[in-house]
Design a protein that fits this description.
InterPro entries: Leu-rich_rpt, LRR_dom_sf, LRR_RI_cap, NLR. One of its GO terms (cellular component) is cytoplasm. The protein is α/β, with parallel strands linked by helices. It has a domain of 148 residues: Leucine-rich repeat, LRR (right-handed beta-alpha superhelix) (Alpha-Beta Horseshoe). The chain is built from 16 helices and 17 strands. Helix 8 packs parallel to helix 9, helix 12 runs parallel beside helix 13 and helix 14 runs parallel beside helix 15. The radius of gyration is 25 Å and the shape is globular.
Length: 456
């Protein structure tokens, strides 16, 4: 049994009602429910008395250190079998880390700990690392984003990594680490016996100086499948170094996020080689890099390579124009693996989207999710988009936000949604002006097709 509630204010009567339900739940998720430390006392009892409970998610609640102390009393009970604990943005400080350390040391069932968006600080996380080093700790996933960590944390993390072969996922994004600390961390990861599968280092103050060491992790850890170094100024020179590790035969990368990394079209030669030859790679994000049409053309040539197995390509806000749409269309008509294409916030225009639709309508194309928000589109291209919606039954998600489609364009899209051949389940239309009459039509459409979600 699963309890999943979000964004609900908890009255005493409602809370009492839910407590009865929780006694038999395997999963409890109560994000954004205005919970406090007093609710944690009740939850501690649930943890203690419900041995089937394996996941507890309490993100975005004002639990505080006192609330965590209550929770940990239940977590330390022999009857507890909890595996996943989510406490993101719960107003925790370093004071919570001593209590959580006790849980890590004593509770072998706990395999996931998510404590990001809390002011734990370097001192607090050092205490958590002590808990990780206990032989009883079997932690597999540790999320420490936005925890106010500094370079001083790396020595403790490396010591924990050395003693924790079970660890598979480590997220340190949005902490002020810097190149020196990241180099030290990477050397520790290369030496550690853990089979790390996910490493997230977004917005960590990384430059090209760190990329050779990250590359060494990629070439030495064949287990690493998910790497995110977005929002770091690695530049084209850093990307070239990363690609040395990415192209290594040992590297089995599947998901690579390089958004806002100061890349230009000069990086696209290396990226194209990666996309066309690294058959494990299924997702790449290049959002907010100045690739321009010339760079996109190189990427599309790679997509046409039979060896490419890429399923998701994110090129939002990459300086693209109508000029690249013909080659994108050609790639779409050739590549049968691509499922998700994000091209929003580029000046494609109606003419560009008309060209894209030629590729989308090709029998080989299997796009499921298409994002074209803020692409200078008008009602003029909506008839062709409507044809794609009714023809391509694989298409289930379409984003047309921030485009001046007006009543005429929205009506054409609505007509397509009403068609029984249309399988679009989610239509995203943020910040588009339409009349009250069209608004009524949209609401009526949702009523007649409850499987369709229109987000505006």
């Amino acid at each position: 049994m699963e309890l999943d509630i979000q964004c609900e204010e908890m009255s005493p009567s409602r809370w009492a009602e839910l407590l009865t339900t929780m006694k038999s739940c395997k999963t409890i998720r109560l994000d954004d429910c205005n919970l406090s430390s007093s609710n944690c006392e009740d939850l501690s009892s649930i943890i203690n008395t419900n041995p089937s409970l394996t996941e507890l998610k309490l993100n975005n609640n004002e639990l505080g250190d006192a609330g965590v102390e209550y929770l940990c009393k239940g977590l330390l009970m022999p009857s507890c079998r909890l595996q996943k604990l989510w406490l993101q943005n719960c107003n925790l400080t370093s004071a919570s880390c001593e209590t959580l350390r006790s849980v890590l040391s004593a509770q072998p069932s706990l395999t996931e700990l998510h404590v990001g968006d809390n002011r734990l600080g370097t001192a607090g996380v050092k205490v958590l690392c002590q808990g990780m080093m206990n032989p009883s700790c079997k932690l597999q996933k540790l999320q420490l984003e936005y925890c106010e960590l500094t370079a001083d944390i790396v020595e403790a993390l490396n010591a924990a990594l050395q003693s924790k072969p079970t660890l598979k996922e480590l997220s340190l994004s949005n902490n002020t680490l810097g190149d020196t600390a990241v180099k030290q961390l990477c050397r520790g990861l290369v030496e550690a016996s853990c089979n790390l599968e996910l490493l997230h280092l977004e917005n960590c103050g990384i430059t090209s100086d760190s990329c050779r060491d990250i590359s060494a992790v990629l070439s030495n850890k064949s287990s690493l499948m998910d790497l995110s170094v977005g929002d770091n100024k690695i530049g084209d020179s850093g990307l070239a170094l990363l690609c040395q590790g990415l192209m290594h035969p040992n590297c089995k990368i599947q998901k690579l996020w390089l958004w806002d990394c100061d890349l230009t079209s000069a990086s696209c030669k290396d990226l194209s080689r990666l996309i066309s030859t690294k058959e494990t790679l299924t997702e790449i994000s290049l959002i907010d890099n100045n690739l321009r049409d010339s760079g996109m053309e190189m990427l599309c040539q790679a997509l046409k390579d039979p060896r490419s197995k890429l399923q998701e390509l994110w090129v939002r806000e990459c300086g693209l124009t109508t000029a690249c749409c013909k080659v994108v269309s050609s790639a779409l008509s050739t590549n049968k693996h691509l499922k998700v294409l994000h091209m929003g916030e580029n000046k494609l225009g109606d003419a560009g989207v008309e060209l894209l639709c030629e590729g989308l309508l090709h029998p080989t194309c299997n796009i499921q999710s298409l994002w074209l928000g803020n692409c200078d589109l008008t009602a003029a291209c909506c008839a062709t988009l409507a044809t794609v919606m009714t023809t391509k039954q694989c298409l289930t998600e379409l984003d047309l936000s921030y485009n001046p489609l007006e009543d005429e364009g929205i009506r054409k899209i609505c007509e397509a949604l009403r068609n029984p051949s249309c399988n679009v389940q989610q239509l995203i239309l943020y910040d588009i002006l339409w009349s009250a009459e069209v608004d009524d039509e949209l609401r009526a459409l949702e009523d007649s097709k409850p499987e369709v979600k229109i987000i505006s």
